[in-house]
Design a protein that fits this description.
The chain contains eleven helices and no strands. By secondary structure, it is an all-alpha fold. It has one domain (about 5-220). The longest helix has 27 residues, at about 35-60. The radius of gyration is 18 Å and the shape is globular.
């Protein structure tokens, strides 16, 4: 698949149910939809130029087989991350005022995207694909995903089927991840595959485990 379309599709999927999508939905309840999407577009364009650049830099200096193999593990981890889902803090849920809505959306979305799943997905894609198509494709995919969520959410005046979206998106990540692992690691020994399986199992446990009573108290106090 062409790098542009692959990036568009994968980032579109990664954004489903993601925290930044929830931020977009929240901001759209406060401000004009066009202003929100315009701010999201420029914030995404800015953050993904760094993401794609990092991936391109890494990809040019490491063996292709290992890049594909590790990228596959990363996509499986993103599947667990998607399955777990995100939530908004009280600070994210409020409508802040005092600056122009465009700059508010741009700043809020840019900060929310730092270290987020879609940013890491873009880095992973750019490690094996050309820089420019990944940059533009990931940006367009993210804007489309957020735009559809905002429009459908406003039309239905209700929450989207969050559970079904999470499961569907996570399955796509799992399939893509396993395929990438096989493509890169077909010639690897059994020991490497066992280690990678252990890493995936630990990752799945950490993402999907239920929070302990102590964790809940810390979240409540925070």
């Amino acid at each position: 698949m062409d790098a542009f379309w692959l990036s568009l599709v994968m980032i579109f999927i990664a954004e489903l149910g993601d925290k930044t999508q929830l931020v977009a939905l929240t901001l759209a309840t406060c401000y004009n939809t066009g202003v929100v999407l315009w701010g999201i577009f420029w914030a995404t364009l800015a953050i993904h130029v760094f993401s794609a650049g990092i991936g391109w830099f890494i990809g040019g200096r490491l063996p292709v087989e290992w890049i594909k193999f590790v990228a596959g593990i990363a996509f499986v981890a993103f599947g667990f991350w998607t399955l777990r889902g995100d939530h908004l803090d009280e600070e994210d849920e409020s409508c802040k005022t005092g600056i122009h809505p465009f700059w508010l959306v741009f700043t809020t979305f840019f900060m929310a995207e730092l270290g987020d799943k879609t940013m890491l997905s873009t880095i992973t894609l750019a490690s094996t694909k050309p820089f420019l198509p990944v940059w533009l494709g990931s940006t367009v995919g993210m804007v489309i995903s957020d735009g559809l969520a905002i429009i459908v959410g406003k039309m239905l005046h209700a929450k989207l089927p969050e559970k079904a979206i999470k499961i569907g998106a996570s399955l796509i990540f799992f399939v893509f991840g396993v395929y990438s692992m096989y493509e890169g690691g077909a010639s690897f020994g059994i020991a490497i595959w066992l280690v990678s399986a252990f890493v995936i199992a630990v990752t799945g446990f950490l993402f999907l485990r239920k929070p302990s009573l102590t964790d809940r108290k810390q979240d409540f106090s925070a």
